[in-house]
Amino acid sequence: MKKSVRANLVILFFVAVLLNGSLVAQTSNDKKMSMKKAKEWVDSRAWANGLNLKVHESADAQEFAFQYQKNKSFWDAAFVYLKNTDLETLAPGRYNILENNVYVIISEGAPKAFEDAKWESHRNYIDIQYVIRGKEKMGIAPIAKAKITEEYNDAKDVAFHSVPENDGKYNIAGPGTFLIFFTGDAHRPGIKVDGSDTVKKAVIKIRTAE
């Protein structure tokens, strides 16, 4: 009898240890890496799945690492798609990658004049924006610095903003490097760069994790 009680106590002890370890691991997954660790992770290219493209330095490394760990299958599907798809010959349109969690919009046409490009943000999806051919300018700013000009449209997952001139940063996007815009980023893509009259672009939409 005593042996049976003792055995049950041992079993309960190990179950408690396993549950605690699982809880700690879950808690850890819910926290963001330090900025140093996140940048090291980005530089390690552990996320790339053999993709040769670079992630632009404007991307929030901590948010990238957090989102990747929370929804690894979504990001892996996106990067494998970029690696294995002949984007040069792909016709403009929307293509499903992973149900409604990951899809891509291919566009081709003339970029906008600076004053015609709008600041925008999303709540449900993260943007990977990759210029396949040509060049365009893209702005990025913290959503906290942005003022709503058009209220959020749930069906289109977009709101439009204005951003004070000094709070927006602009980068030139071209082949070889993609930019990532998270839900905390207001972004202003599609701005014309001198000498680049036509741009072909892929925007991969990845469902965000809370």
Structural features:
single chain, 210 residues, alpha+beta, Jelly Rolls, six-stranded mixed β-sheet, three-stranded antiparallel β-sheet, 35% strand, globular
**Which descriptor suits the 3D outline?**
globular
Mean pLDDT: 89
Seen as an oligomer or otherwise, the chain set is single chain
SS content category: alpha+beta
Main sheet makeup = 6 strands, mixed
Number of structurally distinct domains: 2
Distance between the amino and carboxyl termini: 50 Å
The ordered H/E elements are HHEHHEEEEEEEEEEE
**Overall radius of gyration:** 21 Å
CATH superfamily of the largest domain: YhcH/YjgK/YiaL
* Main sheet: strand order: 1-10-5-12-3-2
Q: Considering DSSP H and I runs of 4 or more, what fraction of the residues is helical?
A: 25-40%
Instruction: Count every beta strand, where a strand is a DSSP E run of 2 or more residues.
Output: 12
Number of helices: 4
Secondary-structure arrangement, i.e. CATH architecture of the largest domain: Sandwich
